[in-house]
Amino acid sequence: MSHKNLPQGTDNVLVDLGFDDAEALSARAMLALRLNNLIDRHGLSPAQVAALTGLTQSEISQVHRYKLQHVSRQRLTLAMSSHRASPSGRDRGDQ
């Protein structure tokens, strides 16, 4: 198989796979990654994360498993932009 015949990919695998909403999915995945990193870093329970971010425990569970179909980008953005997104009120890893 010749590599010359392979199509050039983009830097977004979701676009390459043909997802209609690839950009929105990528944005939600990045927000979910940041939230999951905060949860892991601080050892928070789903109940604690829900109280800190305003997301429901169901949404926290979905985000934790990267099942983002029912969690909007807006909800994730609000959760991450809230000063309640970490126990100290700041995400020290993003300074």
Do you know the CATH topology of one domain?
434 Repressor (Amino-terminal Domain)
**N-to-C SSE series?**
HHHHH
What is the helix content?
Answer: 40-55%
The stretches of 5 or more residues where confidence is low (pLDDT under 50) are: 89-95
CA-based shape: elongated
N- to C-terminal distance: 47 Å
CATH class of one domain: Mainly Alpha
Q: What's the quaternary structure here?
A: single chain
Number of strands: 0
Question: What features would you describe in this structure?
Answer:
There is one protein chain. The protein has 95 residues and is an all-alpha fold. The radius of gyration is 16 Å and the shape is elongated. The protein has five helices and no strands. It has a domain at 20-85: 434 Repressor (Amino-terminal Domain) (Orthogonal Bundle), CATH 1.10.260. It starts with 12 loop residues before the first helix and ends in a 14-residue tail after the last helix.
